[in-house]
């Protein structure tokens, strides 16, 4: 390149006389006395000068080459360095005797800055020191009242409140695992979740008392001790706890109370969302707690940040990444009872929030808020979460400024996860050699119809090519273990996959279909069971839902496949909600799906609902919808059928339903 040559010899290609001519004719290189000046030709330059010129030239050329051909190299290097750093930290914590837990990290923070604000909640601030003292009182009250000892499991049935934090810390000081119950569940599901973890003590918030009374007879039969966070309680079988806590001492507790707690000891039970059945209690060890905490470090969060926690603390995102991660980073968290789109940015501005969380549809809810002039006027620089669609991601950045979105892929019980540490919209992560070395995983071919991996003649799974939608599996090793679900050996075994790449090997089956592209970015495609097959083609429900929500009037879409008598596979159906003040546009929706979806992926049935049934973490429930199908005689919601002859959606009548069942209408 000419520029590179000039760096080596500045007097080439400049239009000046050559070196020889300059000496012979004295053109411009004499001093005032007529004697020649010191010329900068190559002959008079030292070897060091030449080396410097060459190195500068190579550096410029290298920067140009790397920037154009390896645009993510800087981000890769930063992430790899951070990953190695947290890896060494965990290794060090494992070797410390006794084991150094997140609780110990919190106690170190208390000693360093006891007066620093830890929690901000509804106008009240709680310092690290105050939270520590309150947790001591909780531990002593439960030790005296319930006789808790190391290893006893305690279930928490609480909403998002500061007491959630110090109750958990108090239990940790006694060496007691905590089961984090979803405060939205009731009756059968509540009893099921409670029974899974084997807890003998249950702590309940007064606002959830009615839900507890529904199952109280069953709990009393099992000899469960139920404590209400109030100063008094007149209900037989429930004891008050707040009065005992207030009277207890706040003196520190002995480390000996948790002397046997180790890196692989159970710290928590966190429940899956239950989108396909009853929730399962994932066993979370202290090692997994540390892994969740490290996500803040991997995303570049420092002790000066303020973290906004508006997700439920019973979920791994709110509890591990948000609250427990704050203990590790030593930061301040702003805690909300529940997510509020209308109050979100006001809270961020009031408390100088720099890091926010999102999950499921929360980012879309923010984008649906009315536009105001001061929305970009905030200090949020990082957003951590998962489940955001590409179009919402782009809209979010356009609306609210240049926020670094750190999209995650992980499962509470899983042994493999990804972080998109770049600005690549739509990706849930990026593959690199360090990550794969410590947490080996692979993508394998998957049969959608049989819902099982495709195997070769030797009985081994087949690796998927780049760009191919495939099942993600993570190899189970001592570094990346899979513990499973409490009280459910059958579901635990279903997640273990043998003979994947070699006979006898063992992998964790994520149950998720992902795609690795040629640039090593990872994209979530769908969950096994959500993807269905129609007309010999695989249909990804998430893709269809994205298209539907761009149709006029449609607010949300939950896509699934339903059985049709006399047909193989499952045909597409969608439950949708309509935007306020609008109606279902039959013609507009038809044009949308025909324009953007192949024939086999177009939803043939639309079900209009007032609201979509969600889990506590905004995941859509599909099991009941699939079971109910599309029979208008059994469904009160309005139903529509995609009529290819009329080129629109038409109301699904009993006559149309019978014609479909009798195969008079071809699908």
From TrEMBL:
It is a multi-pass membrane protein. It is an enzyme of class 6 (ligase). Residues 108-430 form the AMP-dependent synthetase/ligase domain. InterPro entries: AMP-bd_C, AMP-bd_C_sf, AMP-binding_CS, AMP-dep_synth/lig_dom, ANL_N_sf. Pfam families: AMP-binding (PF00501), AMP-binding_C (PF13193). CDD domains: hsFATP2a_ACSVL_like. Residues 15-27 have a biased composition (Basic and acidic residues). The keyword Transmembrane applies. One of its GO terms (molecular function) is long-chain fatty acid transmembrane transporter activity. This is long-chain-fatty-acid--CoA ligase. It comes from Echeneis naucrates.
């Amino acid at each position: 390149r000419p520029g590179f040559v000039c760096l080596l010899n500045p007097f080439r290609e400049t239009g000046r006389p050559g070196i020889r001519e300059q000496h012979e004719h004295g053109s411009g290189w004499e001093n005032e006395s007529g004697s020649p000046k010191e010329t900068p030709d190559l002959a008079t330059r030292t070897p060091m000068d030449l080396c410097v010129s060459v190195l500068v030239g190579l550096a410029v050329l290298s920067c140009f080459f790397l920037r154009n051909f390896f645009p993510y190299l800087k981000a890769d290097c930063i992430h790899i360095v951070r990953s190695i750093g947290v890896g060494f930290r965990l290794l060090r914590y494992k070797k410390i005797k006794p084991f150094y837990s997140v609780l110990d990290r919190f106690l170190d923070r208390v000693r360093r800055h006891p007066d620093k604000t830890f929690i901000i909640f509804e106008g009240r601030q709680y310092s690290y020191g105050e939270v520590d003292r309150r947790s001591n009182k909780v531990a002593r009250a439960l030790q005296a009242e319930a006789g808790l000892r190391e290893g006893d499991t305690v279930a928490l049935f609480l909403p998002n409140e500061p007491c959630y934090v110090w109750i958990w810390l108090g239990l940790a000081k006694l060496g007691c695992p905590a089961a984090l119950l979803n405060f939205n569940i009731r009756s059968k599901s509540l009893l099921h979740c409670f029974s899974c973890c084997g807890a003998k003590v249950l702590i309940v918030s007064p606002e959830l008392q009615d839900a507890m009374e529904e199952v109280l007879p069953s709990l009393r039969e099992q000899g469960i001790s139920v404590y209400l966070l109030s100063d008094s309680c007149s209900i037989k079988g429930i004891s008050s706890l707040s009065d005992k806590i207030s009277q207890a001492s706040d003196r520190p507790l002995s480390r000996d109370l948790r002397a046997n707690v180790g890196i692989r000891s159970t710290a928590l039970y966190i429940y899956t969302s239950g989108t396909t059945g009853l929730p399962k209690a994932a066993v979370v060890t202290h090692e997994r707690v540390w892994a969740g905490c490290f996500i803040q470090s991997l995303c570049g969060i420092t002790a000066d940040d303020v973290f906004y926690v508006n997700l439920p603390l019973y979920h791994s995102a709110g509890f591990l990444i948000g609250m427990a991660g704050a203990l590790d980073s030593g930061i301040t968290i702003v805690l909300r009872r529940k997510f509020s789109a209308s109050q979100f940015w006001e809270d961020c501005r009031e408390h100088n929030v720099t890091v926010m969380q999102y999950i499921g549809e929360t980012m879309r809810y923010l984008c649906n808020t009315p536009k105001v002039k001061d929305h970009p006027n905030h200090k949020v620089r990082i957003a951590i979460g998962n489940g955001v669609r590409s179009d919402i991601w782009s809209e979010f950045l356009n609306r609210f400024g240049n926020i670094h979105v750190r999209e995650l892929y992980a499962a509470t019980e899983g042994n493999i996860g990804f972080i998109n540490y770049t600005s690549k919209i739509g990706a849930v992560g990026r593959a690199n050699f360090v990550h794969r070395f410590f947490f080996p995983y692979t993508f394998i071919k998957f049969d959608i119809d049989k819902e099982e991996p495709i195997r070769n003649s030797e009985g081994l799974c087949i690796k998927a090519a780049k760009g191919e939608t495939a099942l993600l599996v993570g190899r189970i090793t001592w570094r990346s273990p899979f513990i499973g679900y409490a009280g459910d050996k059958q579901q635990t075994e279903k997640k273990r996959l043998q003979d994947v790449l070699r006979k006898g090997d063992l992998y964790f089956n994520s149950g998720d279909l992902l795609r690795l592209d040629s640039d090593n970015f990872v994209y979530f495609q769908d969950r096994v069971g959500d993807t269905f097959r129609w007309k010999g083609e695989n249909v990804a429900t998430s893709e269809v839902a994205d298209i539907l929500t761009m149709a006029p009037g449609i607010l949300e879409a939950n896509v699934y496949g339903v059985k049709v008598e006399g047909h193989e596979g499952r045909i597409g159906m969608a439950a949708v909600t309509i935007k306020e003040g609008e109606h279902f546009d039959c013609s507009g929706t038809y044009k949308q799906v025909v324009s953007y979806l192949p024939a086999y992926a177009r939803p043939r049935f639309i079900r209009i609902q007032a609201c979509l049934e969600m889990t506590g973490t905004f995941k859509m429930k599909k099991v009941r919808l699939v079971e109910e199908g599309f029979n208008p005689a059994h469904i009160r919601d309005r139903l529509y059928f995609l009529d290819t002859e009329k080129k629109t959606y038409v109301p699904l009548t009993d006559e149309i339903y019978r014609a479909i069942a009798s195969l008079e209408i071809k699908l």
